């Protein structure tokens, strides 16, 4: 499955491994702007980010041969955090389309009883 490989590639900052998980017709939909990014642009944008940003509490919510749902908290250099949800459509065992959304977090999750 893709989730473990994606997590490993991100954690080891292996951009080539991330690129290998993308279908040739890959696209990412950025709901905040409506932009659709193709594979080459996705990898180009991701390369500097993979070194700067470290997702927290990343987890696979669901994965089968068709889809992967992933959730994580993304801390930013200015001290803010967003809750991020990835919906990944898979094709031929690769990531074909990612749709993502994020919500700013206004509270410190470490202070919330779970």
TrEMBL record:
SUPFAM superfamilies xrefs: NTF2-like
Domain DUF4440: from-to ranges: 3-58
Residues that span the membrane, as ranges: none
Protein name: DUF4440 domain-containing protein
Annotated source species: Planktomarina temperata RCA23
Higher taxonomy: Bacteria, Pseudomonadati, Pseudomonadota, Alphaproteobacteria, Rhodobacterales
């Amino acid at each position: 499955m893709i989730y473990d490989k994606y997590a490993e590639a991100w954690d080891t900052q292996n951009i080539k491994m991330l690129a290998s998980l993308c279908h040739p017709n890959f696209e990412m939909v950025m709901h905040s702007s409506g932009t659709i990014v193709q594979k080459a642009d996705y990898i180009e944008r991701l390369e500097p980010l993979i070194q700067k940003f470290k997702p927290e509490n990343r987890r696979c919510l669901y994965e089968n041969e068709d889809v992967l749902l992933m959730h994580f908290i993304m801390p930013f250099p200015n001290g803010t955090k967003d809750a991020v949800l990835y919906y990944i459509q898979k094709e031929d065992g690769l990531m074909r389309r990612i749709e993502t959304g994020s919500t700013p977090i206004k509270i410190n999750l470490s202070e919330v009883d779970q």
